[in-house]
Amino acid sequence: MVLPRRLARLNRRYLNRVVVRLATRAPGLAVLHHRGRRSGRRYDVPVNVFVRGDRYVVALTYGPTTDWLRNVLAAGRCTMTVRGRVVPLRAPRVYRDARRADVPLPVRAVLARLGVEEFLELRPVRRG
Question: Of all residues in the chain, what percent carry a pLDDT higher than 70?
Answer without folding.
Answer: 79
